[in-house]
Amino acid sequence: xxxxxxxxxTPDSLLAVAVEVFNERGYDGTSMEDLSRAAGISKSxxxxxxxxxxxxxxxxxxxxxxxxxxxxDQPEAGNGRAVQRLEYVIRRTAVVLMDELPYVTLLLRVRxxxxxxxxxxxxxxxxxxxxxxxxxxxxxxxxxxVDVEVRLATRLLFGMINxxxxxxxxxxxxxxxxxxxxDAVVRLAFDGLRA
Amino acid sequence: xxxxxxxxxTPDSLLAVAVEVFNERGYDGTSMEDLSRAAGISKSxxxxxxxxxxxxxxxxxxxxxxxxxxxxDQPEAGNGRAVQRLEYVIRRTAVVLMDELPYVTLLLRVRxxxxxxxxxxxxxxxxxxxxxxxxxxxxxxxxxxVDVEVRLATRLLFGMINxxxxxxxxxxxxxxxxxxxxDAVVRLAFDGLRA
Lengths: 195, 195
Hints:
2 copies of one chain form a homodimer. The first copy, chain A, folds into 2 domains: about 10-50, Homeodomain-like (Arc Repressor Mutant, subunit A), CATH 1.10.10; about 60-190, Orthogonal Bundle (Tetracycline Repressor, domain 2), CATH 1.10.357.10. Chain A has 11 helices and no strands. In chain A, helix 4 packs antiparallel against helix 6. The mean pLDDT of chain A is about 95. By secondary structure, chain A is mostly helical. The interface of A and B includes residues 147, 160, 188, 190 and 193 of A. Chains A, B: GO terms for molecular function: DNA-binding transcription factor activity; transcription cis-regulatory region binding.
């Protein structure tokens, strides 16, 4: 049994602990007891910070979604040829995913049993649809190939980008650099493996 | 309470039920009780077919792995320029994934708490390494770009292919056709989105 420690958590540092536990045990499989144990403070101390675990989920996926939707608000995502806007959005999406790794990992794993989970899935779908629209516009402008259906291309594209959460670990020595990964994603997405 | 039904299962049909439950609840989260309930037969009837749930896991991931390694044994994967062999392997990997959807889904989700899980992860890694070797050979032959590291390219490539399990549902009306998906994977992998 570990001794409870003094509660010196900030909203952000408590959230970081919670997200780690959610990603490890799954959101459904995590109890307030688990969170209390991982944080090393009592359940009532946690309730001093948040109303419950759903609020922690809400903040965590909110942080991931803010990062992603923030990309679409940048001028580079709104002006110019669609293909250039798409390139910007794809690169930035990969970067946000790596910068906010545990939060985006959680977002990609939620499965929709609570209001917050359904909301997160809905927002995620909205983001994907915005990217699909950009892809469609770039096809219409003649810059992207017409022989792969837009919906299918969007899915495969996100499949590639989202898979980064499975193996990217920034703290590992000799790990690939964030910008190196983002460059590779953009190159493969637009021009593929061929020389 | 459901009435137990007469045990008319074959090894394959019982395996199909088990894999469905494993994919839904996770392998760790599935008890023999859960399997008995899903199959509608008693636990002792299940033990008549298999020694336990690990044997079912072994058969299920074995089926996925046989499908994948079977690709590498084909003449098209062994003869000719590396880039052509790679194209064959990528296309067939996508097809096996769709044909053996629940089995490959399970394979991609196992996380290594039992001997069988660790073995499955090890075999999956071997398959990825075989593909990485092919990619390296195609780079050496001058057919693939040199500005994306082989290990990273392999990861992103499998990220794209493996993501198919997240959304491909063959029985859904209006769903994308298997060959259409495999074509798209090959086009995007080699030549990207650009027109």
